[in-house]
Recover the amino acids of this structure.
């Protein structure tokens, strides 16, 4: 379903959380807008200052708009300020990945035989080898198990190994996020179901029935690498501890109610994928030993391969659903293709920053990851809008951005609205970003960037107030309202 905006307030996205230092290098005056063409001399709209003053949004606002056909910068406000872009970062990551991987690039997950196959028996080890596919799911592993059965394999005499070394192992994207946040999983070259496990609970006469599984629309294999224990307490809601290669979770009984479900992050991604594959292989009569993580790149005969969709489709899904793991995995893959030595997210982001400076003239790009989840990332509105306004970058990015529908005064979607918006949103507590394109029926096409952030409020995100801080929803609603009013202003005063 497309993201929607309301004239009185945009629908809020899923809010992340992180503390944020004060913003630096903010100019004391805003950039001057270029003179308006004579064709719009008689067109008017509310002044930017009027919109900002009446919005009720605290903190810093940085905006920039350009003509998407000519590239001409039209106007800005604190456009040189480096502000946190949140998930708007993913738009730059998409361009980065397209530049070094190509729109048709596919990621391959393989089953490799380290030994000979004789009479249906693999006399050696079987390796489940990850190729960096960020969208591999349980259905994909089921396809691999089916292919293995079709090869006539009935038994594996050796070990069952799992390898995720195609990408560096990262415990979690941002260590300052809540430990149980499903949008903040581990990163590995072998990742399954966005490295999340489905936790479900149902109240019974004797207590609670709990399941931990790797469900898809067709399968529901239960797992043991991630385990849950209910504790009679009020706070904290969740705790996590890794013991002997197993994720041990506890949950507060008082938080469960009658029943429910949520996705929790996986911290042992290779073993998780291996355990799920073993269950699916068993359904075909193929028994495997307990999966073992290997550090060595597998060598041998490829028995089966599962391919991801083309990169262009992965990016469309990433930008629509703002999946952090997809952004980090394809960002690292792009850095590797660029020839950089990557040890973690910061080194990969550093490579992307260097590319942005060299190829896109974004001297202020200072990102710490590829998803925008990290608190220290900074981006300038004036630099990003110039990139968006380039014909070459529009051709790559615009087709994969999601459509954003505007709403009427009464809150209903207005599909006949004269403005069409394709953009990437970005939302953290007290941070809101929006960047993309506005197209009008008369042929007007604009590129725009809007960053809003309140550093002082983010610095208060500590302890139990971190996930649902007081005032965050109200601030976000006001920010979204301001964003829509700015879009409408630009559609009015810069129309052909």
């Amino acid at each position: 379903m497309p993201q929607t905006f309301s004239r009185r307030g945009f629908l809020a996205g899923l809010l992340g959380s992180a503390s944020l230092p004060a913003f630096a290098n903010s100019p004391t005056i805003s950039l001057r807008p270029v003179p308006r063409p004579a064709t719009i001399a008689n067109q008017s709209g509310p002044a930017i200052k009027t919109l900002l003053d009446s919005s009720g949004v605290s903190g810093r606002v940085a905006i920039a708009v350009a003509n998407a056909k000519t590239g001409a910068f039209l106007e800005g406000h604190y456009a040189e300020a480096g502000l946190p872009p949140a998930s708007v970062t993913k738009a730059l990551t998409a361009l980065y990945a397209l530049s070094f991987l190509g729109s048709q690039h596919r990621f391959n997950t393989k089953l490799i035989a380290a030994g000979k196959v004789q009479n249906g028996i693999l006399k050696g080890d079987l390796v489940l080898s990850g190729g960096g596919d960020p969208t591999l799911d349980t259905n994909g592993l089921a396809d691999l198990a089916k292919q293995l059965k079709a090869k006539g394999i009935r038994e594996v005499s050796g070990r069952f190994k799992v390898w995720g070394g195609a990408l560096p192992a990262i415990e979690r994207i941002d260590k300052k996020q809540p430990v149980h946040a499903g949008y903040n999983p581990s990163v590995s070259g072998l990742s399954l179901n966005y490295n999340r496990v489905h936790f479900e609970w149902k109240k019974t006469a004797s207590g609670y029935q709990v399941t931990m599984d790797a469900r898809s629309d067709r399968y529901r294999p239960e797992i043991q690498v991630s385990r849950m224990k209910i504790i009679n307490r009020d706070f904290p809601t969740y705790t996590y501890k890794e013991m002997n290669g197993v994720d041990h979770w506890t949950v507060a009984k008082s938080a469960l109610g009658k029943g429910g479900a949520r996705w929790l992050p996986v911290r042992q991604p290779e073993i998780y994928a291996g355990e799920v594959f073993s269950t699916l292989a068993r359904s075909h009569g193929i028994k495997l030993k307990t999966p073992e993580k290997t550090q060595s790149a597998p060598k041998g005969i490829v028995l089966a391969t599962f391919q991801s969709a083309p990169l262009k489709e992965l990016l469309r899904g990433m930008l629509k659903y703002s999946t952090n793991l997809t952004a980090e995995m394809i960002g690292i893959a792009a850095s590797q293709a660029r020839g950089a030595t990557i040890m973690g997210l910061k080194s990969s982001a550093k490579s992307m920053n260097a590319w942005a400076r060299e190829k896109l003239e974004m001297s202020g790009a200072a990102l710490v990851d590829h998803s925008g989840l990290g608190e220290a990332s900074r981006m300038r509105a004036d630099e990003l809008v110039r990139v968006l306004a380039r014909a070459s970058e529009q051709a790559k990015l615009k087709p994969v951005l999601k459509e954003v529908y505007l709403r009427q005064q009464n809150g209903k979607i207005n599909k006949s609205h004269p403005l069409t918006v394709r953009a990437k949103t970005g939302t953290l507590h007290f941070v809101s970003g929006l960047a993309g394109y506005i197209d009008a029926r008369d042929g007007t096409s604009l590129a725009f960037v809007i960053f809003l952030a309140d550093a002082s409020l983010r610095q208060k995100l500590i302890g139990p107030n971190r996930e649902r801080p007081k005032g965050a929803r109200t601030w976000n609603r006001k920010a979204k309202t301001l964003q829509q009013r700015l879009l409408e202003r630009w559609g009015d005063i810069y129309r052909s």
